[in-house]
Every structure is written in structure tokens, then in C-alpha cells.
Write a structure and sequence with these properties.
By secondary structure, the chain is α+β, with helices and mostly antiparallel strands. The protein folds into 2 domains: 69 residues, no CATH class; 210 residues, MetI-like (MetI-like fold, Orthogonal Bundle). The strands form 2 sheets. The protein has a 3-stranded antiparallel beta sheet, with no helix packed on it. A two-stranded antiparallel ribbon has the order 4-5. A hairpin with a 2-residue loop joins strand 1 and strand 2.
Length: 391
Amino acid sequence: MTSPIPAPGEPLPHYVSTAPFDPYSVEVMTEEQVRVNQASQLRLMWWKFKRHKIALASGIFLAALYGMILICEFLAPYDLHTRNVDFIYAPPQSVHFFHEGEFVGPFVYGRTMKLDMDTLKRNYTDDMSDVEPIRFFCRGDGYRFWGLFESNLHLVCPAEGGQLFLLGTDRLGRDVLSRIIYGARISLTIGLLGITVSFVLGIVIGGLAGYHGGVFDLLVQRLIEVLQSIPSIPLWLSLAAIMPATWSPLLIYLGITVILGLLDWTGLARAVRSKLLALREEDYVLAAQLMGAKSGRIIGRHLVPGFMSHLIATATISIPGMILGETALSFLGLGLRPPITSWGILLTEAKSVSVIAFYPWLLFPTIPVILVILAFNFLGDGLRDAADPYK
């Protein structure tokens, strides 16, 4: 049915729909669009972070390592200080599954040692008639788990009366693999504690300098320039030398953590200052000031959360520097000291060129250092890209 055409000069007919008006009918979105528009900032960051496959894999790898340090006593085949005096500087053993064509399961061959009288080098040869099966979920060296209770349960153990040195032994016959696992607890946690100290100093000092400006900002910038102009290694050495030799290993550990945090806050403070210089002119900051909010509340509740994602990305990139700093100090003999064990202390066994030439497996502690540094860098790249999910 067609409406009649109005004659010339007559008003056009006007129709009004009696159906209820739906303001959302103007733009009908798909379920996927609704899900994205209603997602929180944190969820958007997670969706974008998952697309960064290398960063995701690095995050899983680091999570597994930090979970490992909680149960390192259970994972290590030997206790930290167990010595095998008959197997000093023993090279890594190979794991086999078949013996004379038959499947035996994971095992290693027993060894015999002969001393070379010309070079005084211990030469180890596998005894193909001595099959030593590897045991799992077994009883071995006793330990005190987290200092709470006694136990001797291990994930992997050598055969009864046998030996298992998957990464060789050091000059005292101690298993390198077990010491690397124990050393992860110190080397990985010192980065987290150090970045905590750095974060507190960087956010507080940089936040006050960026929010108030003036003379305080001028003094902070000059202090940062002075600290950044000093070469890092001599500064590390001088600060580490201040710690008394009579301190307990725990106090030295805390001292090294504070030193690493004191040296790393400058870059973070400048980043926080530059952000707050721009954000302090926003209207919501003026509204908070008119309502009587103090400077600490404005900085902590309104300004810093606005770029917290960038701070998290910065932290993941700064942690590797602290791990390397601890490794360098311990390698030079000015950081942690025995009986505390870290990856840097393990590398002190490989200071001599002759030792490296004869016993290259003592350099194995460098492998977890490299892997952790790369993982943190990849994770930082992924978090930095995901910090602004709308790009």
C-alpha cells in the first residue's frame, strides 16, 4: 500500500512511531565488541600480553623457577654441603636408557678414577659393567626443610652405593647441579628485594620531586646526576667494602640487597618525576587539592596508579641488572660469602684459567644466569607492550 502523493502546497504527512525508543539500537555491537568494551584495563593488558608468545613463555619459565626455590631441598640430589672426596673434579655423567640392547630406564655408569702423575689431573672412565639406576622420590641426604622440620626425601637420588653427578663436581667433590639449585634461592630473591628498595626510593623521591618541583626537584636532579656519573663497579666495591667482615651471612645478604637498591633508584625516580610533571596539571589533581587531599594521598592514590603498568615493566627490566650486580660482587669476593651460596659464589670456583681449561663444567652456573636475564628482558618487553592495550 502506497501513501497518496500530496498536492502542491499541501503539507507533507508526518508519522510518529509508537514503538519504545532504544538508544542502543543506533549502533548494534557484536558479542566480541561488547566483551572488549566492557573489559577492565587489567584484562585488556592480559589479552595483549598473551599474544606476545616469547614474553608469555618467559613468564611461565620465571614462575617455574621461583616456584622451584621454595622446594630446592627436595629437588637437589644432594645436600648443599655434601662432599664426595673420592670424586673431586668429576666431569658430568651421561644419562642412558639402554644397556647392551635392553631397556633399563634412566641410569648412569659407575666410574673409576686414575691420577695423571704428569699433570696431576684426575681422569675418570665409565665402568660399563656397573649400571647404577637413577631413583625417583627417594630417600637421600637429610635436610631441614625451611628450618622447620627434618626430612630426607628427594626428587632424584643416585643408586644405592652409587653416585649421580649430572653437572660434575667441584674441587671439594660437591655436586654442581645441587649447588646451582640451592644458589637459585639467593640469586633470584636478591633481585626482588633489591627492586623493592629501589621502587620505594624511586617512587617517593621522584614523586615528591615531580609533584612539588622547586628547590627539592633541583636538589634531587643534581643528586641523581652525581650518582649516575660514578662508575658502577668502583661504587659497588666501595659500598661492599664498608660492610664489616664480622657480619653474619644473613646481614651480608641484606646489605647487598640494600646496596643494589640504593644504586638502581635513580632511573626510576626520573621516570616517575617526568610522569608526575605532566599529570599534576590534570583537573582531577586540582579537584583533589580543593577537597583537602594531602600530597602523599594525591601521589599514591591518583597519580602513581595512572602509570603503574609502566612501572611494572620497568621493574622486570631492572631485576636482571641486580642479579648481575650480585653475581659480579660475589665473583669478585666482595659480595655474599660462604656458607651462603649463590650463582656468583659458584662462579668463583672458575676464576683460574687453568681450572676452566681442565674443568669447564664449573662454568655451568653461567647458564641459569643467562637464561634468567633473557627471560626477564623478554617479559619486560611483553609487559611494556601490554601496558597500553589500546595501541
